[in-house]
Design a protein that fits this description.
The protein is mostly helical. The chain has helices at residues 2-8, 12-27, 31-38, 42-55. Helix content is 64%, strand content 0%. Helix 1 packs antiparallel against helix 2, helix 2 packs antiparallel against helix 3 (31-38) and helix 3 packs across helix 4 (42-55). The protein is globular.
């Protein structure tokens, strides 16, 4: 499923999300290696991977919720 998502990626975020899933599975990369290869932080790489796994595929970038005190 991740390979198909990689081919259908329209934005750089979708491409990075698919890479965060494929690289550890296909090539045995560690989280640090994936983060360096993709060009993002280790924590962000983990978030992208978990979003893909939990959503069952490619997920559009989530809009941040309004926060703060009103």
């Amino acid at each position: 499923m991740a390979k198909g998502a990689l081919a259908k990626a329209r934005t750089i975020e979708e491409f990075r999300q698919a890479q965060a899933v494929i690289l550890p599975l296909e090539f045995g990369f560690s989280m640090d290696q994936v983060a360096k290869t993709v060009g993002i932080s280790k924590s962000w790489e983990c978030k992208l991977r978990m979003r893909f796994i939990l959503a069952g595929g490619m997920q559009e970038e989530l809009k941040p919720k309004r926060g703060g005190r009103r």
